[in-house]
């Protein structure tokens, strides 16, 4: 067997810390090629090599950059010990160094040299790179509190699946704080609280309530984007997933990153007992609330309850107690911020700000007249209506 091939096969077989990389399609294809390399059927060998390149070229044109990307987002035993500030023994440290040195060797390896037996056929070549994986990874470890690790490395917005797993949002909202107009006072309260979270100071859970379309949800997502490079991550939890929230917070408490648990458009009916999961978290139990997590909730209702006349006249003798419990949720938030529907002057200011940003060329009086008309035809004056109006002009 070719000594170069043997060294690479042994290198892959010896991986412990970054073993998940062996599950990727690219590395699987590379290992299959290495297995058949000594086959006398050279067409078969070339075919397996081409299969490997086919997978690799979907991501990159060199194996070094591909592996680097994989290990920086890898969630493994070494990085878990670092984030939990556990001691790392000499054997694990040596294993890390050996594996990273193997990746450096692999990234500089000229695979085309394996096909010297046939110069009449053009073999696709890979760019060789000299990458110091060890130095890069050690720097990465030092920066995980801001740059993140695992799935948190390249993403800043997440959701939960039905098995409580944290998954990156498929279409991450890129809302920019600079493109939100009006409500500066309300927004600054959320920004100040979020800065406290990032700086390790006392941060509070926040309820943002008010009329639809006033920018409550957009504010939270814009702030998540604003501080993404400082280690802030947002995880959206749906109302139907409130039973997951205790386990989620316990899991996040071990991370060096900072998290916003985002519950959007939350309302409860009077016979809905799922509010108890949220109430338990906000009240605090035996375990104290972790300093790296806050809960931000948006709602159209200050007391988070949508009532109807049947709630007040029903024959359930406990109905009033249930209503009072749900209404008391508001008191569990240290900060409650109201987003009221804008008056005419504020609405016009928001319309003009969006118009300037989008370089709308229209007579000011005509623009205001059309915006007011649009608001009447839609759901009334709101930042959302202002933005939608400008989008119709575009």
In short:
This protein has 17 helices and seven strands.
Helix/strand/pairing category: alpha/beta
Count helical runs: 17
Uncertain segments: none
Count of individual beta strands: 7
Percent strand equals 5-15%
Q: Mean pLDDT across all residues, rounded?
A: 89
H and E string: HHHHHHHHEEHEHEHEHEHHEHHH
**Radius of gyration, in angstroms, nearest whole number:** 28 Å
Strand order of the largest sheet: 2-1-4-5-6-3-7
Oligomer: single chain
Mind summarizing the main beta sheet? Answer: 7 strands, mixed
Percent range of helical residues? 40-55%
N- and C-termini, Cα separation? 65 Å
Overall outline: elongated
How would you portray this structure in words?
By secondary structure, this protein is of the alpha/beta class. Helix content is about 45%, strand content about 10%. It has helices spanning about 5-15, 25-35, 40-55, 65-70, 75-85, 90-105, 135-140, 145, 185-200, 215-225, 245-250, 275-285, 310-315, 320-325, 345-355, 365-375, 385-394; strands spanning about 155-160, 165-170, 205-210, 230-235, 260-265, 295-300, 335-340. A seven-stranded mixed β-sheet has the order 2-1-4-5-6-3-7, covered by helices on one side. α11 links the parallel β4 and β5 (about 260-265). About 30% of the residues are buried.
Topology overview:
Elements: H1 3-13, H2 25-36, H3 42-56, H4 63-72, H5 77-83, H6 90-107, H7 133-142, H8 144-147, E1 157-160, E2 166-168, H9 184-198, E3 206-210, H10 216-226, E4 232-236, H11 245-252, E5 258-263, H12 275-283, E6 293-299, H13 309-313, H14 319-327, E7 335-339, H15 344-357, H16 364-377, H17 383-393
Parallel strand pairs: 1-4, 3-6, 3-7, 4-5, 5-6
Antiparallel strand pairs: 1-2
Helix pairs in contact: 2-3, 4-6, 15-17, 16-17
């Amino acid at each position: 067997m070719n000594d170069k091939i043997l060294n690479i096969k042994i290198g892959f077989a010896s991986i412990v810390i970054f073993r998940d990389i062996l599950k990727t399609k690219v590395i699987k294809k590379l290992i299959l090629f290495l297995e058949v390399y000594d086959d006398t059927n050279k067409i078969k060998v070339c075919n397996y090599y081409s299969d490997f390149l086919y997978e690799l070229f979907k991501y990159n044109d060199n194996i070094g950059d591909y592996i680097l990307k994989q290990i920086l987002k890898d969630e493994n035993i070494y990085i878990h010990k670092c984030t939990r500030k556990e001691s790392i023994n000499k054997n694990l440290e040596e294993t890390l160094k050996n594996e990273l040195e193997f990746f450096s060797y692999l990234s500089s390896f000229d695979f085309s040299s394996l096909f010297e037996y046939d110069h009449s056929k053009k073999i696709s070549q890979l760019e060789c790179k000299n990458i110091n994986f060890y130095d890069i990874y050690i720097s990465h470890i030092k920066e995980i509190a801001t740059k993140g690790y695992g799935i948190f490395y390249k993403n800043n917005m997440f959701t939960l699946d039905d098995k409580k797993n944290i998954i990156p949002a498929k279409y991450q909202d890129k809302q920019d704080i600079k493109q939100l107009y009006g409500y500066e006072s309300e927004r600054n309260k959320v920004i100040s609280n979020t800065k406290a979270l990032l700086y390790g100071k006392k941060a509070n859970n926040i309820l943002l309530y008010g009329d639809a379309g006033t920018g409550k949800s957009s504010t939270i997502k814009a702030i998540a984007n604003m501080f993404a490079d400082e280690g802030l991550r947002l995880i959206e939890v749906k109302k139907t997933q409130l039973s997951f929230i205790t386990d989620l917070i316990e899991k996040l408490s071990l991370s060096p990153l900072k998290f916003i648990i985002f519950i959007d458009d939350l309302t409860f009916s009077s016979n809905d007992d799922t509010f108890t999961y949220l109430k338990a978290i906000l009240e605090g139990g035996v375990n104290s609330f972790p300093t790296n997590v806050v809960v931000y909730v948006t709602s159209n209702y200050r007391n988070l309850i949508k009532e109807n006349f049947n709630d007040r006249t029903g024959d359930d003798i406990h109905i009033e107690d249930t209503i009072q419990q749900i209404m008391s949720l508001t008191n569990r938030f240290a900060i409650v911020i109201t987003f009221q529907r804008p008056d005419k002057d504020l609405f016009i200011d928001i319309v003009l700000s969006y118009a300037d940003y989008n370089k709308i060329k229209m007579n000011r009086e005509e623009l205001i007249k059309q915006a007011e008309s649009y608001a009447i035809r839609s759901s009334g004056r709101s930042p959302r209506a202002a933005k939608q109006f400008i989008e119709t002009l575009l």
